[in-house]
Amino acid sequence: MGNKIHGVYLVTDRPLCLYHSLVEVVQLAAIGGVSLVQLREKETDSRQFLELAKHLKKILTPFQIPLLINDRLDICLAAGADGVHLGQSDLPWMDARMILGRDAIIGLSLETKEDYHSLIKTDPKPNLDYIAVSPVFDTETKTNTKPAWGLDGLQWLRAQTKLPIVAIGGIKESNAKEVVEAGADSIAVVSAICSAKDPKLATEILSAKFTS
């Protein structure tokens, strides 16, 4: 697992792209220094999803920014994407690893501390590239989530694991710094970049939270 998970992680959401198309948002975020992009498409059919994935892969390749697909291994394989992000109800991560191979980036969302305990029980050293704390704060982009982890929960998880941690949920410019200080290797954002008038600037400001 040579992939370094660090910095700003963009999770796409077309309805939240208020000022630019999704493709433009991704392009501007890439110029702004985003580290990872996850394509999340809940509303579209498989063919459109695949076309979009191929298009984003073409945009991101010159920047050497990995493209992850939410949930769909078939789209990941067909688009030549770099990996998948899996939730608790998606295909088990071990099966995803078997299908996608050792070089793929595979991340897993943890919604509760119990999710972490059962992960470690299954495999004390899981072959994952990152685990995602979801949600850190309450968020409007995902309404069916469990109670927020909060900064305390994030610090707890940091003390448990050496795996890279991606924090997602309610993260914006005003609280990003404290999330990084609580132990997140990467901050995943949706509306903070998708809904920004200037996605490039929004990405640069969030990226600076890792260095300042």
TrEMBL record:
Pathway: Cofactor biosynthesis; thiamine diphosphate biosynthesis; thiamine phosphate from 4-amino-2-methyl-5-diphosphomethylpyrimidine and 4-methyl-5-(2-phosphoethyl)-thiazole: step 1/1. The keyword Magnesium applies. GO terms for biological process: thiamine biosynthetic process; thiamine diphosphate biosynthetic process. One of its GO terms (cellular component) is cytoplasm. 2-[(2R,5Z)-2-carboxy-4-methylthiazol-5(2H)-ylidene]ethyl phosphate binds at T139, E140, T141, G170, V190, S191. The keyword Metal-binding applies. 4-amino-2-methyl-5-(diphosphooxymethyl)pyrimidine binds at Q38, L39, R40, E41, K42, N70, S109, K142. InterPro entries: Aldolase_TIM, ThiamineP_synth_sf, ThiamineP_synth_TenI, TMP_synthase. Its cofactor is Mg(2+). It comes from the Bacteria. Mg(2+) binds at D71, D90. Residues 8-193 form the Thiamine phosphate synthase/TenI domain. Condenses 4-methyl-5-(beta-hydroxyethyl)thiazole monophosphate (THZ-P) and 2-methyl-4-amino-5-hydroxymethyl pyrimidine pyrophosphate (HMP-PP) to form thiamine monophosphate (TMP). Belongs to the thiamine-phosphate synthase family. PANTHER family: THIAMINE BIOSYNTHETIC BIFUNCTIONAL ENZYME, THIAMINE-PHOSPHATE PYROPHOSPHORYLASE. NCBIfam families: thiE. This is Thiamine-phosphate synthase. It comes from Leptospira vanthielii serovar Holland str. Waz Holland = ATCC 700522.
